[in-house]
TrEMBL record:
<protein>
    <submittedName>
        <fullName>Histidine phosphatase superfamily (Branch 1)</fullName>
    </submittedName>
</protein>
<dbReference type="Pfam" id="PF00300">
    <property type="entry name" value="His_Phos_1"/>
</dbReference>
<dbReference type="InterPro" id="IPR029033">
    <property type="entry name" value="His_PPase_superfam"/>
</dbReference>
<dbReference type="InterPro" id="IPR013078">
    <property type="entry name" value="His_Pase_superF_clade-1"/>
</dbReference>
Length: 193
């Protein structure tokens, strides 16, 4: 009986030690878990990047307008982005990028802010967009360059000249982690309301 009590007591102590090891949370681990619970959508910064829609290649200017197909695509972008809670819209100052950005800016009732393709991801841009959901309309070369600058890596290459349907999503989490996604949206045959 004495040995049985000792064996049962030993098993009880061993199981308590095992349970204690499994449930051990250091203050560091608890703070990380608590911090993750406090991350809300408004604490992260989300960027949606698109290249301008189809431009008039026959125009004899360096600043052409969109074609009717390009306008259809711009309207399609507004529909695709309708549920993204866009708060700020940025564009370069070219007609084709402004015309691409306008339907989305109008849909979310905001004005278009401008950035220079030679000054990407500046401190001022970061300050204005921190914690917000942002649409950035650019060009075949500046869009991937801008994204790469945010990510701090050379992930995306120039966009093919006949490709206007790429949607790049870049998220910066409150803990500094960055992630990106590339999706492609072919132009619908008919854009409807």
């Amino acid at each position: 009986m004495k040995y049985l009590t000792i064996i049962l007591f030993s098993i009880f102590i061993a199981s308590c030690k095992q349970e204690s090891k499994e449930n051990t949370n250091t203050p560091e681990n608890l703070s990380e878990i608590d911090a993750d619970k406090n991350f809300t959508d408004k604490n992260k910064t989300t960027y949606y990047f698109i290249r301008h829609a189809e431009k008039d290649r026959k125009a004899e200017t360096n600043d052409p307008h969109l074609t009717s197909i390009g306008m259809d695509r711009a309207n399609q972008w507004a529909k695709i982005l309708a549920d993204k809670n866009i708060e700020v819209v940025f564009s370069t100052s070219y007609q084709r990028t402004i015309e691409t950005a306008k339907p989305t800016a109008d849909a979310v009732n905001t004005t278009i802010e401008f950035y220079k393709p030679s000054k990407l991801y500046t401190k001022e841009f970061q300050r204005k967009t921190a914690g917000k959901t942002v649409l950035v309309v650019g060009h075949s070369d500046t869009t991937p360059l801008f994204i790469n600058k945010i990510l701090g890596e050379d992930k995306y290459k120039n966009i093919s000249d006949n490709e206007n349907g790429n949607l790049y999503t870049v998220i910066i989490h409150p803990n500094g982690r960055k992630e990106s996604l590339l999706e492609n949206f072919p132009l619908s045959q008919k854009v409807t309301d």
